[in-house]
Amino acid sequence: MKSNVALLDRVMYYIVQRKGKQVRPMFVLFSAKLHGGITENTYTAASLIELLHTATLVHDDVVDDALERRGFFSVNALWKNKIAVLVGDYLLAKGLLLSLDHQAHRLLKITSNAVKEMSEGELLQIEKARRLDIREEIYYDIIRKKTASLIASACSAGAASVSDDEALIEDMRLFGELIGIAFQIKDDLLDYGDDNIGKPRGIDIKERKMTLPLIYALSKSSGSEKRRIINTVRNNNNDPKKIDEVIRFVKESDGMNYARQKMVKYREQAFRMLEKYPDNPTSEALRQLVLFTTERKK
Question: What domain range is 162 assigned to?
């Protein structure tokens, strides 16, 4: 990641020192090992996925005007939006060049498709946030694109790094998509919880994002109560007391339990896809990684 620009090096050092759990490259490595073994191409795929993921996080913090990431100041909080956008662009370009340098065109196609879908998902969410009255199936369409697509590409890229079997690669993409949907539902649940997750609670409400716990709670409420809550999210989403009111409404309406049941359903579907593989340390590690992503505290 070294460059000739001192400012860029400073920002990159800050990002690398505060790297996250690196779950997505782990999905690449396990998916490859599940189908034979890890190759040099696999490491390229894992690096590419992590670079693209980091680029999207830097850009997301600009889009969401978020000042924290993983319990630390975000890049845009320290260096402002213009620099954050350019750093995100740099990370994206480095990832794409990495695949070209290694002649990994199949991996480039997989990951480029994920970036396209993530952008579509974010824009769809922004479009729907204006109405604040989305159906559950629209919610799934949003998270399938904006979150699940990258985890799906991690699993399919891992398989593609060791095999040319398109059916097998597609199977791993579907497996990753199921995990990604469960992962995002878990993320949405954390926003309504009481644990310290490295960012303020209720941030989705503040950003007027309609997530599954709230969508379900609204579907079970009376017309007047639904209008009151939607009005609160639309007009009072910066008031901590009003945010707490919405969180309490979601919990009392069983929105948390419903979302958790859906998360478990998608996770179980992913586990069933693993049943065709023999029990070995790799398939077990993959199961444990799925459990970790859906039972994490932050």
Answer: 6-295
* 217, part of any domain: yes
Q: Where residue 52 sits, what CATH number does that domain have? A: 1.10.600.10
Token representation of residue 94: 């480095």
Between CA 58 and CA 88 the distance in angstroms is 6
Domain assignment present for 15: yes
Task: Report yes or no on 47 lying in a domain.
Answer: yes
3-state SS, one letter per residue, for 169-224:
HHHHHHHHHHHHHHHHHHHHHHCCCCCCCCCCCCHHHHCCCCCHHHHHHHHCCCHH
Specify whether the CB–CB gap between 185 and 143 falls below 8 A. Answer: yes
Q: What is the pLDDT of residues 108-163, one digit of tens each?
A: 999 999 999 999 998 888 887 777 768 889 999 999 999 999 999 999 999 999 99
Nearest to 141 by CA among 215, 197, 201, 206: 215
* Alpha-carbon gap, residue 102 to 84, rounded angstroms: 27
Pairwise CA distance, residues 36 & 61, whole Å = 38
**pTM given for the model:** 0.88
Quote the number of domains for the chain.
Answer: 1
Instruction: Let me know if residue 1 belongs to a domain.
Output: no
Structure tokens at 136: 């559950």
- pLDDT (tens digit, 9 = 90+) per residue, 63-81? 877 777 777 888 888 899 9
